Amino acid sequence: MSMSERKLTPDLFRPANLGTGKGEEITKPSLSFWQDAFRRLKKNRAAMLGLFAIVFIIVFSLIAPSLSKYGMDDQELMRANLPPKIPGLEKIGFLGVDGVDIRGVDQYEMKNVPTEDKFWFGTDPLGRDQWVRVWKGTQISLYIAFLAATIDLIVGVAYGGVSAFYGGRVDDAMQRVVEILVGIPNLVVIILFIIILDPGILSITLALVITGWIGMSRIVRAQILSLKNREFVLASKTLGSTNGRLITKHLLPNTLGAIIVTSTFTIPGAIFFEAFLSFIGLGIQPPTASLGALIADGFRSLRIYPHLAIYPASIMCILMISFNLLGDGLRDALDPKMRK
Predict the structure, then answer these.
(1) How far is CA 274 from CA 66, 147, 260, in A?
(2) Mean pLDDT over the full length of the chain
(3) Closest Cα partner for 174 from 191, 159, 157?
(4) N vs C: which end of the chain shows fewer Cβ within 10 Å?
């Protein structure tokens, strides 16, 4: 007998034991927007790898210089241009890590350098420990990068938010200023400051203050223009909320995802901007070191002493790739349309 021919009797059914509030019970744990975004970010292996690399380089740049007994400006021509020598890897001949040059002459003994002195990244033409200079230069590059992100968050968010919220003549006047600044290249601005001031961190900082926030202001303006006429904003305005409360409690929190992603992409751009300026001689000046300045110094003797350029260039590449991977992961995690 098939199921369709079988007679249905009451004994085939069993009542479900449900309480009065069982139908309203939520079986899954409640997640906020940020908890859900972080959960999705953790599933992105590339983004988490980038985050781990960023944290590692930041922490290591702070503690690594203290691992050497030499300071950043300790010069000794007797140990100039020594190749890298890593303790425990003396038998491995790769890029001179064993301290032996291509003719088989031990450069450490030839230069009358104590054998217990092992320079992990070698030394530069003035005999300074390249290990200390690379990690100190990483600190300078990270400082400029996070400074650019901070300027974006303070100046760019405030300028774009006010321009979009008030609109009308205020928006027209503020956007004309932005259009004028967009037409001035960053390189021209930095050259003008170098004419007035000396090349260095101050000139780069002032150039970032003047033009570095424009991209962020445009993104924030576009986001707030799309949000300020939404129902929840109009309802809050009807209930008597002030303009400041509307901006800080309703508009900016809903643009926070775009702000975070834009800031993440700003950092590698600032690192490259500083490296480019230092490479052409308009950035960090000796004896201060940065990744760009170290790459520029190593480029001049790349064929003879490649280790002078390889290590700072590798760290800069890892930083830029890691921030881009993290930015891609944050963009996907903070976008509700990407939710599965």
Answers:
(1) 25, 12, 22
(2) 78
(3) 159
(4) C
